[in-house]
Specification:
homodimer, mainly alpha, Tetracycline Repressor, domain 2, 77% helix, globular, DNA-binding
DNA sequence: CATCTTATATACCGAACGGTATAATGGGGA
DNA sequence: TCCCCATTATACCGTTCGGTATATAAGATG
């Protein structure tokens, strides 16, 4: 099983760095120190490899998210902990997060997008449900749940994108994202920039 | 010059639908009804073609943005008009906007990303400057201009992404984005979701 | 020992990739 | 008329693409 893991790791690194379409199967095999038939033995196709890469890193994130959702907290704390889960996931594996994010926004008819689409919808619906459950605290939302949900995901993703750029620019190590930073971002989302 | 324009148009359509790397030069040429050497005569390389596509649709958007920036308005109205400019640009050419957006988030070492990077930075800096100029109204921002700027761009992009998905799902025509919708999104950004 | 399964490599497939050498075409000016 | 220059096509380049037929090696099982 060691080869399988190494192939997944190398594929993730390359997809992250240059994107699914720009990376050839041969290059992945070379970097993993195996040959193409071995790769195809485990994953069947290039797309199958991508799906395996995607699935691999997601189980823990799912668990963290559902834990937050099931805690029965108010919307403020739910949003904060959700954001914290996203940040923790990002910090645990930046390459995975960034790869996922770029697939999130990739062309609709690209086969790689088709592969991430189910996961995108999964997390989007989870986000929508946060706001639906909180309609008591938010008043009549007149169908704005979706706008809130997408705005929330967008805010987090862009915060992490900025964080990523800053880390790339920084010379030293990568400091952990502070709790107060996350509270600041979520606070900005909830109360606006004048708060 | 008619061929040149048609090549640009077809390239945009295909890059939008399937992404830069997944589209071959041959396919673009076929669709435009010309041959590869003609394409290379005008654009020199595939990357040159992408750069030309990018540059093509941007001049008007630049003009709209700088007009807003030079109006000397308060931050609220500036943000609203900036958002409106983004929305107008989106509505004028959805394919271009979505293509640009997916390039925005694509892998850092992908050559297509290198091509959009300058434009991304251009609009990012413009957004930062909005918040820098408004420090009087926002109080001591302690370096949060960047967070505001990226959050603002993220909010708009995700709103338009949602809009795009809704339009795709809708059966009828695509209604224009209403002024009150834009005000709602910008209001959410400025005053939070409880407003 | 014989056999079956799992895992791996060699060597190859046809097609598509980005790109180009070269020639033909056709209109405008000398 | 002649040539020039912009434009376009034919036919090709070597390389890489995703994928596979087939053989082999190693370990477990009878």
């Amino acid at each position: 099983m060691e080869n399988r893991t190494r192939i997944l790791e190398c594929a993730k690194d390359l997809f992250y760095a240059r994107g699914y379409d720009a990376v050839g199967v041969q290059e992945i095999a070379d970097r993993a120190g195996i040959t193409k038939p071995t790769l195809y033995y485990y994953f069947g196709s290039k797309l199958g490899l991508l799906k395996a890469v995607l699935e691999e890193g997601l189980s823990e994130f799912r668990r963290m998210l559902s834990q937050v959702m099931d805690a029965g907290l108010g919307i403020q704390e739910t949003l904060y902990r959700t954001a914290a889960a996203y940040c923790a996931f990002f910090e645990k594996d930046r390459k995975y997060y960034m790869m996922f994010m770029s697939l999130f926004y990739s062309a609709r008819e690209n086969e790689a997008y088709q592969a991430v689409r189910p996961y995108v919808m999964e997390f989007y619906r989870a986000s929508v449900s946060i706001f639906e459950r909180a309609s008591g605290q938010l008043g009549n939302m007149r169908g704005r749940q979706e706008q809130f949900a997408i705005g929330f995901i967008g805010t987090i993703n862009h915060f992490l994108l900025l964080e990523f750029e800053r880390e790339e620019a920084a010379t030293g190590g990568t400091p952990r994202i502070g709790e107060e930073q996350i509270r600041s971002v979520v606070g900005q989302f909830m109360y606006g920039i004048f708060s």
